Amino acid sequence: MSDDFLHTLTHAHQQAAVPLPAPAFCHWAEQVLQLLFPERADRPLSTTDAVAATISQLRSDLAVLLSVVPIAEPASAIAADFIEQLPQLRELLLLDAAAIVAADPAAEGLLEVIATYPGFYAIALHRLAHALHRLAVPRVPRLLSEFAHTRTGVDIHPGAQIGPSFCIDHGTGIVIGETTVIGAHVKIFQGVTLGALSVAKHLAHTKRHPTIEDDVVIYAGATILGGSTVIGRHSIIGGNVWLTESVPSHSRVYHQAQIQVTRTEDPTADIMFSI
Ligand SMILES: CC(=O)OC[C@H](N)C(=O)O
């Protein structure tokens, strides 16, 4: 091993920013979800005093965790501001869970959705991350969204704006970009991408991802790209659609696959497909 390499690494370590305690932040977010939803709790809280003490503990834990993050305001003020939003966050998440129950014939009820659905978990962590993003907390929102991503395969940038009653069914392989705007009562399935039409560094801080208006359904594998792409309200986007332009309200957009089905009972017949 060369001395140069040792010195390079030493210098990199000396210059490094204070690392974020990622597991502690993720644990804190899990605790917030357990407070808001006893359905997810190891041990439900049985008295008002216990609830109040848990809220107070989560506030001070957040303030301590944020003390290593470079933020303009005092960590305690940000923590207090976040905790004030808990009633609204719970209300929004209950609407999301109810939307999943209402949409999914396989869902048995709120308890199952809140405790087990990856789509619910992904939107829950997104709403926490988005609240911190709006409070201008750097790095932590992305840390939480990547935590949800690793657990669910649902990659929602903390900056994405998502309206009430959002339903993700079969939450896996989903990408929702930073400047996406989603209205109320939108339903998406596995493999949906709401992405940028082109990826270039100079486009940072511009609207690169689509706008999905109220009551839109986007089926599995659909890809919708572009910052000026607007999917009008009450539209249905079919599975595997590739869409880079706006569609008006009440549109039905389908991908027509060209699939051929042939039959033969002769096992020695030529194989008709190629890879
Ligand atoms: C979701 C997506 O298209 O991302 C591309 C790139 N990271 C951007 O934010 O523009």
TrEMBL record:
Keywords: Acyltransferase, Amino-acid biosynthesis, Transferase. It comes from the Bacteria. InterPro entries: LbH_SAT, Ser_AcTrfase_N_sf, Trimer_LpxA-like_sf. PANTHER family: SERINE ACETYLTRANSFERASE. This is Serine acetyltransferase. It comes from Hymenobacter citatus.
